[in-house]
Design brief:
Layout: H1 3-15, E1 33-40, E2 55-57, E3 61-66, E4 71-76, E5 81-85, E6 98-104, E7 107-112, E8 117-122, E9 128-133, E10 140-144, E11 147-154, E12 159-164, E13 170-174, H2 179-183, E14 194-198, E15 202-207, E16 212-217, E17 224-227, H3 238-246, H4 251-254, E18 260-266, E19 271-282, E20 285-296, E21 301-307, E22 317-321, E23 324-333, E24 336-346, E25 354-355
Antiparallel strand pairs: 1-24, 2-3, 3-4, 4-5, 6-7, 7-8, 8-9, 10-11, 11-12, 12-13, 14-15, 15-16, 16-17, 18-19, 19-20, 20-21, 21-25, 22-23, 23-24
């Protein structure tokens, strides 16, 4: 067996879910998360994954932003790279830093964090279609019903979301800023991350500044707040935020002592899945553990902080669509980088539910 094949086999073994060790008298319990499949991204001599950035998913494709190569890769369910979008530059269809992405029908929208511009590509032809400016800091993008949503705090309006047309026209400002940031607005710049989900009637949002789920009628209106329990993840650390403001010299030591929401998606029967990770920053790089929380919005109960079985280092990237989690992780072994895509299914019937008070 070649050294390359040996290395691939060793890396693949890292991603297999080991069966739990049960006491002989123990009764097996269904897991909330089960693996659907796992594939290695098949690279070519001219197309490799340099660094895994943000991830977006459709039912048949995975889209991986590669900021080191200034492009986005489209990967099939079998792991084949079927096309690339973009190249380095500032012109039409070019990137300086491809970031947040969303699949909108047969279009892929990619936010460039440096240029503050959204580029739109056809997922059927691969062609660049159009672009528009989006003056927002690290926005999470969402889509529903021919409207685009960008989770981005607006300090002056005290809102948390921009509603836009598919050509970038601003249709409205919605949502709210968490209470601690209304008191201490200087927190909005270092802690901008939000995850959003939009259905035909309601917008849902979670922020790294709060443990609450915020929701409001689509188009704007009264904001409802539900405190979501934490069990395994750190959650929002308001005491640490307060301390950072009082003593900025300690900010570096405590800035990552909280959970960061990265994705939300609604499955059937008003069950909302939220993925977050607890970051660790050391020696100039990030690692961290991921959790998924399932929220029964109408039943006011939560299945909190189910660990996602993935190695914390190097840091993986995740996508979420309905009840399916996509985990993309790159491991370097033997001098070669191997990128693996794993898909997991959420089974809410196996949840240990907790009432939301």
């Amino acid at each position: 067996m070649s050294a390359r094949l040996i290395m691939l086999a060793a890396v693949s073994a890292v991603f297999l879910l080991a069966p739990p060790t049960l006491h002989p008298q123990a009764t097996a319990k269904r897991a909330v998360l089960s693996q659907i499949d796992s594939v290695t991204v098949i690279e070519t001599p001219t197309i490799q994954v340099n660094r895994v950035g943000e991830v977006a998913v459709s039912y048949i494709r995975t889209y991986i932003a590669d900021p080191k190569e200034w492009r986005v890769l489209e990967v099939s369910r079998q792991g084949k790279i079927t096309r690339t979008f973009g190249r380095r530059g500032q012109g039409p269809g070019e990137f300086e830093h491809p970031g947040s992405m969303v699949v909108a029908g047969d279009e892929l929208l990619v936010m460039d964090f440096n240029l503050r511009r959204v580029s739109v590509f056809s997922t059927t032809s691969g062609k660049f279609l159009r672009s528009f400016l989006l003056n927002a800091f690290l926005p999470h993008l969402g889509y529903d019903g021919n409207e685009l949503f960008a989770a981005a705090f607006d300090e002056s309006r005290k809102t948390s979301l921009l509603r836009l047309s598919m050509t970038g026209d601003v249709l409205g400002h919605e949502g709210t800023i968490p209470a601690i940031a209304q008191r201490l607005p200087m927190l909005l710049q270092p802690f901008p991350h939000q995850a959003i989900e939009v259905d035909p009637f309601t917008v849902y949002m979670m922020s790294e500044l709060s443990n609450s789920l915020y929701s409001w009628p689509r188009g704007g209106g009264k904001v409802t707040q539900l405190a979501i329990p934490t069990r395994g993840r750190r959650g929002a650390n308001e005491a640490a935020y307060e301390q950072m403001v009082k003593d900025p010299q300690k900010a570096g030591a405590i800035a990552y002592d909280h959970s960061v929401p990265v994705a939300m998606s609604m499955s059937a029967a008003k069950l909302l899945a939220m993925i977050s990770y607890d970051p660790v920053y050391s020696n100039g790089k990030f690692s961290g553990r991921y959790h998924v929380t399932v929220i029964d919005v109408d039943g006011r109960r939560a299945c909190p902080d189910v660990p996602i079985p993935v190695s914390p280092d190097p840091l993986a990237k995740v996508g979420l669509l309905g009840s399916r989690i996509t985990v993309v992780q790159q491991v370097v072994a033997g001098g070669d980088a191997v990128t693996t895509i794993r898909r997991l299914r959420i089974d809410p019937s196996a949840c240990d539910w907790v009432a939301i008070k």
